[in-house]
Amino acid sequence: MPSDLVIVFHEIAHDKFKRNMHDLVLDYKVTLAEALKGGAIHVVTIENEKIEVAVDRIMTPDSFKVIEGKGMPIANNDPLGPIKQNYRRGNLIVRFDIEFPTHLDSSKKE
User: Fold this and answer.
1) Residue 3 belongs to what H/E stretch?
2) Which of 71, 82, 86 is nearest to 21 (CA)?
3) What are the φ and ψ backbone dihedral angles of 96, each rounded to 5 degrees?
4) Which listed residue, of 39, 67, 83, 87, carries a Cα 20 to 30 Å from 28's Cα?
5) Which DSSP string corresponds to 4-28?
6) pLDDT tens for each residue of the chain, 110 residues long
7) DSSP-assigned letter for residue 62
8) SS3 assignment, position 70
9) Are the CB atoms for 99 and 34 separated by under 8 Å?
10) Strands 23-31 and 92-99: what pairing?
11) What is the dihedral of CA 20, 56, 33, 99, to 10 degrees?
């Protein structure tokens, strides 16, 4: 007997990444010293790819870095798209979560 097929998807939250449309957001913990020095950080994408990201300025609590093309796939109307895997992708947004110390001894203050 013909009838409708209804499929319901439930998105399960990831433990490291948050989804914002086609973009992925990653909260990356850095110490106060790392935030002040800058330099390179190493990020692992959702596909387990290791990327080195240059941070060329002092990080503030509202700082972030955008890595283009490392977010979720954006579906297109190309019927061969799944075979060729030539999807455009959203961005990976790395938000810096600076861990401020609760106590500093005299040598650390120097």
Assistant:
1) none
2) 71
3) -90, 125
4) 87
5) -------PPPPSSEEEETTEEEEEE
6) 888 989 998 888 889 999 998 999 999 998 888 888 878 889 999 889 999 988 888 888 888 999 999 998 887 766 666 556 667 889 999 999 988 888 878 887 77
7) T
8) coil
9) no
10) parallel
11) -10
What Å distances lie between residue 64 and 50, 56, 72, 74, 107, CA to CA? 18, 12, 18, 23, 30
| Residue indicated by tokens 């990020």 | 43
Residue 84: closest CA among 92, 75, 93:
75
- Per the listing, tokens 């861990």 go with 99
